Amino acid sequence: MTNTTNETFITSKDASLESSISTLQCKLVELGIHVEEKSWLNEVEGIWSVHVTNRDCPRLFTNGKGASELAARASALGEYFERLGTNYLWTDFYLGETIANADFVHYPNEQWFPLQGDAWPSGILTPELQQFYNPEGTVAASRLIDLNSGNTERGICAIPYTCLRNDETVLFPVNLIGNLYVSNGMSAGNTMMEARTQALAEVFERNIKNRIIAEGICLPDVPEEVIARYPNIAAGIKGLRDAGYGILIKDASLGGEYPVMNVTLLHPEDQGCFASFGAHPRFEVALERSLTELIQGRALDSLTGFVKPGFDMDEIADPQNLEIHFVDSSGVVSWEFLRSTPDYEFVDWNFGTTTEEDYNWSVNKI
Prior knowledge:
Blueprint: E1 2-3, E2 8-9, H1 17-30, E3 35-44, E4 47-54, E5 61-66, H2 69-85, H3 97-100, E6 111-113, H4 127-133, E7 156-162, E8 169-173, H5 174-181, H6 192-215, H7 224-227, H8 231-242, E9 246-251, E10 260-266, E11 273-279, H9 283-294, H10 313-316, H11 319-328, H12 355-365
Antiparallel strand pairs: 1-2, 3-4, 4-5, 6-7, 7-8, 9-10, 10-11
């Protein structure tokens, strides 16, 4: 984090925090949306979180986290726009007949495919993707009707996605996005590359996190001298340890292959274990995200009730447990994850120094 006279810049962001916040707040006002900040938390140095809710509809809310008050506010407002722009704020709701029959339900460039029996229309996805999502042909086309419109007569709503590697446009059914990926891969940013980098980082995080938990992979510790390079992060770790919690700082890159870090909390009284992951092509950013995510929206005295590590790998690798980890990271982890002998050596990785480098590395890697 660097400060000029009037502005604060943090690593990986293409605008100052003050500029980002001002832009986001002004756009909300222009849209007639009034948000309120609630539940500010800063019980540990360098770890802030906030809950932002719509004044007129409290069910529309987001959370923000960061190493400072400004960073947490920008995070929450950015997430609000992320979910506003992707319609995720309404993903679980039927929107009614008026919207279901409007010129468009989700986006102006959406396309509709009338149902013609059980076969999937040839215009959606690609032949390879149809084989991937429906390998045995047992999923009827009617199952692809989106919840928000529920308009069976209109058919399947698909929206265009662009492959960043070759600029190919692929029409993805809204239903597939909502059911399989939920919020994974959604992002907002000061620039296109910043937003895309963040979206890809989240995809890396969720994928590698699932693999580590499901396979009981033991990660290497991050050396103290490496942590010491980042005083704000080190202060946050010290604060949690001073509060009595066991804090493990792990390199989750799997040998320097992926931009992922891990911070795990062990409760000294109930032996609960909470594993937080973060990702970004820059080591520092991934580590900070892991740390701030750990206690986002959680007071220190509420860090109880997490489940103890387990031995049953079938239970740990079960999709239901992995989904719990996706939602709030409170699922079961394996005792293998906590072994003293790691499955990989620590790698002092860093894959980018500019937003453009971050973005290009992420696209090529994925």
